[in-house]
From TrEMBL:
<feature type="transmembrane region" description="Helical">
    <location>
        <begin position="6"/>
        <end position="25"/>
    </location>
</feature>
<feature type="domain" description="Peptidase M56">
    <location>
        <begin position="8"/>
        <end position="279"/>
    </location>
</feature>
<dbReference type="InterPro" id="IPR052173">
    <property type="entry name" value="Beta-lactam_resp_regulator"/>
</dbReference>
<protein>
    <submittedName>
        <fullName>M56 family metallopeptidase</fullName>
    </submittedName>
</protein>
<keyword id="KW-1133">Transmembrane helix</keyword>
<feature type="transmembrane region" description="Helical">
    <location>
        <begin position="37"/>
        <end position="58"/>
    </location>
</feature>
<keyword id="KW-0472">Membrane</keyword>
<dbReference type="Pfam" id="PF05569">
    <property type="entry name" value="Peptidase_M56"/>
</dbReference>
<feature type="transmembrane region" description="Helical">
    <location>
        <begin position="107"/>
        <end position="131"/>
    </location>
</feature>
<dbReference type="InterPro" id="IPR008756">
    <property type="entry name" value="Peptidase_M56"/>
</dbReference>
<keyword id="KW-0812">Transmembrane</keyword>
Amino acid sequence: MTTFAFHLIAISVQCGVLVLLAAALSRAMRLTSAQSAGLWLAVIALSLAALLMGRIPLHLPSSDPLFRKSMTSEITSLTTAPRHATTRSGSWHENGGAVSHWPLVNWASVLLALWGSGIVAQLALAFLRLVRMRRIAADARPVADFQRRAEALFARHGLSRAPRVLVGPHVTTPLVAGLRRPAIYLPRGADLSSIELDLVLGHEMAHIARRDLLSGLVASCGQVVFWFHPAIRYAVRMYHDAREMACDARVLQRQTTTPFRYGALLLRLGVDAPSHGGIAVTSRRYRTMRRRLEGLKTAGAVRGGRYRLILMLPLLLVGLPWRPVASAQAPVSSVAPQTTKRPLFSYCVYDYSGMDRHDQYEMSYSAGLPSDEEQKLQKAHQSAFWILHDGRNYLFTDPETVARARAILAPQEKLYQAHGRLEGSYWQVHGPRTGNESRLSALRAYRQSLESSNLPADVKAREYARVDTDMKDIMTRLSDTAQADRQARETLDAAMAAAEAREATSTGELWALAQDAYARHLGQSW
């Protein structure tokens, strides 16, 4: 449970990075509404896949020291409890430092309970919308004149047959619903001219032709699973807006009308979207309506083909939860024991103190004391030093031995804490550089796409000038921060080397302490 809680937190952070990257790509490449809808749908789908599948293994060469550290941390997680791991006693140690918190299992359980409750609430709302939509469908009736208009339009939008057109008393705005047999629902008493009716039907047919009902399920799943995530909610909202604008553009391209007339129809229909699971012509938010009206000005313009979205997909892969692992030539056979066996050497120091209702129970570094022994310590409010060596457990509870073990571990913990602070400083420099590098890649891809675009020469020249200016500015910033980034990386590596060296020393000192204490009959073994 605790592992999944950490996985959920990590994926949430990575999804936020993915959404930021998608927003930068969308702005830098000036996508069409259809391409933008595809981009945001891909972001939502990748976020769901990352949560369900876990981290994706990325095979890297083992010669790079940074890659070796990543490999070491992954292998350590299989053999001993890592410094970043959770323990049954409820402590979490960032970079080897002991930090006192409430029991980790408790907050992980609360976190997952809140997440699950939110999902249940979202599913309940979705069920209510489905029930309401079924009620609307049950009360709706076909109208022959409207059906004939649909028969005359369906071929223009690439449909194999005309959808059913129904009119209902509970329909407030035109919408389309139904996965297997999509149907268009119109409000009863809607005062639409024949031209306006064609535009409304055309918009709903565009949704059917684009398979928006099916792709909308992916967006709905993302909204349900990541109900707490503002970035995913933003991605879902951007997908919905881009989807509507794509259908607007399709109507203007395939039917005889003007942007002014179509925009006037949108305004006259109002801004109340359905809340019962259908896809409507109009939007609830004023900002979306304004974007749609502004998008009508360029809805017929072609700013690039489908290849532009394909160019973006490799860039989006940067935001996926990659997990560096060793390549085939790396010597992995010596560090891949069976996960069912206990490690040959591990240790921990338990500190317990009662403080009103806020009890502290810390573990310094461990593969895990047997649960029955741990429970005994908890009930007795007793501190202990435990070590596992060659498959044999040694447990010491006398205050002197525990204090000496803690003193041995103190320098190691301080070094790892210092490494954690340096890592934060490093990412303050390296994080913006990563963002600038991603944006530079997006601009280069967009500039390359301009070469084969059919934009007017003056527009293309302005775009080249804008992109070149942005690229020059980004490259200047990258050049200015290159030395600071390199120095921060070297300092971070040196801190890690010092901490690992101290850890090796601590290991020997702890085993010597255990041998001495056991020889003086101060502990027990099994």
